[in-house]
Design goal:
Blueprint: E1 2-9, E2 11-12, E3 24-31, H1 35-49, H2 109-122, E4 127-130, H3 142-150, E5 161-165, H4 170-176, E6 182-186, H5 192-197, E7 200-204, H6 205-216
Parallel strand pairs: 2-4, 4-7, 5-6, 5-7
Antiparallel strand pairs: 1-3
Helix pairs in contact: 1-2, 2-6, 3-4
Length: about 220
């Protein structure tokens, strides 16, 4: 069962590192009873998509050789053999070995968005909504972006810090890629595993509104 849940937040002001006056609110669709099931299902499917599925073994029909019977059927005292490609032989084919396959399974868009919104709402205690300062970064600069982040979180809290923005630009990507333990994602590619793994979630207001709009305005096709 999905419910419209209000998420109250304050925007972190980077100019003086203080909270802007007045709390804001955004509506998220969250799951009431089967939240653990949905989140677990989404994470399992996300892990399955990472599997390459390229393991491959040759069967007895694919192994080279084996066209001639090694020895006659009777009279040699040896065990019967019809082909050198038999799985019983060294260098022969493999019985029931792994073959290339696709491990990923289908997850409904509504289920994914519901699980994502629920995980985000449950992680509201570690969520920090920041002022959109990305327009001020005109060129790649790790020092500049790091000085901005220091106003929000301490250096000791950079372990598993997730930074969610509305859109990842090349300038921003080059600026943060050298910061250890900081993961940069866009609101469109945000995954549930990243939300649960992070100790601190930095998110711009545009990214939060985009997540809310996508989840609430989808009616299916």
């Amino acid at each position: 069962m999905a419910l419209n849940t209000a998420l109250h937040y304050n925007i972190r002001n980077l100019n003086d590192a203080s909270l802007e006056n007045g709390a804001k609110c955004v509506t998220l669709k969250t799951s009431l009873f089967n939240s653990k099931y949905l989140i677990h299902k989404a994470i399992v499917l996300q892990n399955l998509r990472k599997r390459q599925g390229t393991a491959s073994c040759k069967t007895r029909s694919e192994v080279q050789g084996g066209g001639k019977k090694p020895w006659k059927q009777k009279g040699t005292g040896r065990a019967r053999a019809g082909s050198s490609t038999s799985p019983l032989w060294k260098g022969g084919g493999v019985s029931f070995g792994p073959q290339p396959r696709i491990y990923s399974k289908k997850l409904n868009f509504r289920e994914r968005q519901l699980a994502l919104s629920t995980a985000l709402y449950n992680s509201s205690s570690k969520l920090i909504i920041v002022q959109d300062f990305l327009d001020t970064i005109t060129k790649p600069s790790t020092k500049e972006i790091l000085n901005q982040l220091k106003k929000l979180v301490s250096i000791q809290q950079y372990n598993h810090t997730l930074f969610v923005v509305h859109e990842v630009s090349d300038t921003l990507n080059l600026s943060v890629r050298n910061i250890k333990h900081l993961t940069l994602v866009s609101s469109e590619t945000l995954g549930i595993r990243e939300i649960l793994r992070a100790k601190t979630i930095l998110m711009t207001e545009k990214a939060l509104i985009n997540i809310s709009n996508v989840a609430n305005n989808y009616h299916g096709h």
